Description:
This protein has 372 residues and is of the alpha+beta class. Among the domains are: 46-185, Beta-Lactamase (2-Layer Sandwich), CATH 3.30.450; 259-372, Heat Shock Protein 90, CATH 3.30.565.10. The protein is 53% helix and 12% strand. The strands form two sheets. The protein has a five-stranded antiparallel β-sheet with strand order 2-1-5-4-3, covered by helices on one side. Helix 4 (64-79) runs antiparallel to helix 5 (161-226). The longest helix is centred in the middle third of the chain and has 66 residues, at 161-226.
Amino acid sequence: GAALAAGWRPVYSLLLTALLMTLFFALLGWRTFAAQTDFVRRLQPFVVSTHLVEEVITPGAGSGAQDAGATFAALCDEVLQTDYGALVASGALADLVTQPLRYPADAPLPPSLPRFDAATDDLLPLAPGTDAAWALPLHGRQGQLGVLLLGRRRGDGLYTEEEIAIARAIGERLLDLQATAALARRLLDLTRVQWAEGQVADRQTRRVLHDEILPDLHAALITLRHEPEAQAEQAVDLLAAVHRQIADLLRALPVRPPARPSGRLLEDLRRLVTEEMAPRFDTVRFTAGADASATAARLRPLTAEVTYYAVSELVRNAARHGRSDDAPLSLTVTVEGGAGLTVTVQDNGKGGPALDPDAGAGQGLALHAAML
């Protein structure tokens, strides 16, 4: 219209229109590209690997904890736009994920975590007085997995339903990754400990046979050959000592390969105590309550198998650490039913020093507790 009023030729009007349309589409394309670039930049922390499993396999090769913390920081800063956040494991994952994720890294935690109903998924407001203003429960197949604590949004705005759904999905994913890495780390530590114990037991057996038993047998043979009557008592003492050493070696070695559970927990535990592990104790006793069989039959197959291996770990620890030089070692395993299955393992051994989890001790029991 302005071109016609000015008396321009039609060709100039078309050129001006084409120029304006070109500028408009160029600006639109630039804005679209900038928005896409910003979206990819904000999405990148959530799609890259956290290197948690890689750090487990090759210690020191990655920075899995830092990468998980960076992902959580991006969630709080870029998506939720809050200055405070904490991801704390609870329930089934509490024994595996012991270090919560925080934003900032030195942010304090509230003195106690809020309690939720089993079926609630709603964002729960918290009492004032701490940096955390909201609590979001995170759930899995085994119940509550953790709690996502959030501060107030910048500008005192409200969180949208889409942002809460994204926060829940990312929080559950981070907890799953941390729990998987912790479980893999404990499995590897347990495997290394068992391999080292096997190597030590094999070398100890060879050393005792070569350095103690064979020289005593040789001395007894020489004594009986040269002075069979005068030195008979000394030779008998040597042979008796050799007999005790061989008996101790045989007692320390497994009688047969460990049996796998058959699926009947009570019978498997009875066989473990009275047959497989009985040679490593002087006396064993296995008792089961009247309702123990019915309670054990109600357990899930995975729970029953983990329970079997947990009891096996306890019995082996009692045999390994409980025996003293002269006192007989006895074992009592009691199984009681009811609302839940209770297995009590008792021995009269001397015990030993307190376990150091940082040194790898107690990993087997911690692993079974986490799996239960």
